[in-house]
Design goal:
mainly alpha, about 0% strand, disordered C terminus
Length: about 140
């Protein structure tokens, strides 16, 4: 029988992190995204109201990390419509996210957030490939895993 993981993956819960920690994570991360040379133009072209967008993303990450149920939406179709996406953008997004979670000071929150982000990047990249290049084999999302 294999040894159990030294640090089991935490489950989303109100005890995992505060709403303020989620808000700080989202705001700090998207401040980095807005400064990143390749990612910034992708977001600038689509986000007209950053306050509303950040509030929506806080709701999303609150659902993922705290188990709240405020988020509503379907992010997949919006992302799949972006012709300029490529693997490097997914890798940059994930690297910036992991850099931000590493600074959050909450190791269980960091583990869960990094796991969720990696799954998002993987799912989105795989779906993007299937839609754009259905004749090619699908490859993994991130070189950072």
């Amino acid at each position: 029988m294999p040894d159990p993981a030294p640090f089991p993956m935490p489950a989303p819960s109100l005890a995992l992190c505060s709403e303020d920690q989620v808000t700080r994570l989202v705001h700090d991360f998207y401040a980095r995204v807005r400064d990143e040379p390749r990612l910034a133009p992708v977001f600038t072209a689509r986000v007209d109201d950053w306050d509303a967008h950040l509030a929506h993303l806080v709701d999303f990450w609150s659902a993922m990390l705290r188990g709240t149920r405020r988020f509503s939406g379907a992010p997949m179709p919006k992302h799949m419509a972006m012709d300029e996406l490529d693997r490097d953008l997914f890798d940059r997004w994930l690297a910036l996210f992991q850099q931000t979670t590493a600074e959050c000071g909450n190791a269980p929150m960091q583990r869960l957030a990094d796991d969720v982000a990696a799954r998002i990047a993987d799912t989105f990249w795989r779906r993007f490939q299937m839609l754009r290049w259905p004749q090619l084999p699908v490859v993994g999302a991130s070189r950072l895993d």
